Amino acid sequence: MKAGVLAVQGDVSEHAAAIRRAAAAHDEPAAVVEVRESGVLPDCDVLLCPGGESTTISRLIHREGIATEIRDHVTAEKPVLATCAGLIVLSRDAKDDRVETLGLIDATVDRNAFGRQADSFEAPLAVDGLADPFHAVFIRAPLIDAVDEGVEVLASWEDRPVLVRDGPIVGCSFHPELTDDPRVHDLAFFPELEAGV
Ligand code: GLN
Questions:
Q1: What biological processes does GO assign it (predicted)?
Q2: What's the pLDDT band for 196 if we cut at 50, 70, 90?
Q3: 99 CA distance to ligand 1 centroid (A)?
Q4: Are 89 and 6 contacting, i.e. CB atoms less than 8 angstroms apart?
Q5: How confident is the prediction for the chain on average, in pLDDT?
Q6: Can you give the residue range of the structural domain that contains 97?
Q7: Ligand 1 site: residues with CB under 6 angstroms?
Q8: Pick from 100, 104, 113, 98: nearest CA to 81
């Protein structure tokens, strides 16, 4: 498996390690490449869009011509995991003119919706299809506030969706790369294996 990690801004190395962990658990050899300019993503089987600063990420992917390649990747139904700022950028609308969203996840999100007083917290999260809770780390997390029909909500926190699947894309508000648990990367990149467990 060749995995591209969008690396224009945000936490890249933790995701590269998490992808390798998930792949190793399935005995799947994984090459991880950083996507900083156009021409790299078309050769990748899966894509990871990490957290960071969604205004910056959105500006850079449009400037570098990567935005179109992300659209093509999704049209080809290749898997994507979009976390936090990545989720914001792939959503239909982030209700913020500074973020030019890609409209690939049929959901609207609120940036930094959990508010400053609770801008970072950790919580055990019940996830559809996983036997045990996932220890979720939220950092200035976006809130998914409306999902269209066809978007599957895999986990919610206080009645708010925080993990969704829309076709080949898994989007999450939290940071699954900050624990050793590979199960969210698994859900995104090895869905057929998860279903068979
Ligand atoms: N709220 C941040 C943004 O809008 C995302 C935070 C994160 O990725 N940890 O970009």
A1: L-glutamine catabolic process; pyridoxal phosphate biosynthetic process; pyridoxine metabolic process
A2: very low
A3: 11
A4: no
A5: 92
A6: 2-196
A7: 51-54, 84-85, 88, 111-112, 139-140, 142
A8: 104
The secondary structure element, H or E, covering residue 15 is: helix 13-25
The two three-digit tokens of residue 65, written as one number: 């011509």
Of the residues 49, 84, 172, 185, only one is catalytic, namely 84
Q: Are 144 and 87 in contact (CB under 8 A)?
A: yes
Task: Please report the pLDDT score of residue 114 as a whole number.
Answer: 67
Please count the structural domains in the chain: 1
Q: Are strands 134-139 and 120-125 parallel, antiparallel or unpaired?
A: antiparallel
DSSP H helical ranges for 100-190: 183-189
**Atom nearest to 96 CA in ligand 1:** 4
CB 14 within 8 A of CB 5: no
Domain containing residue 185: CATH number: 3.40.50.880
Q: In this structure, what are the phi and psi dihedrals at residue 179, rounded to the nearest 5 degrees?
A: -125, 170
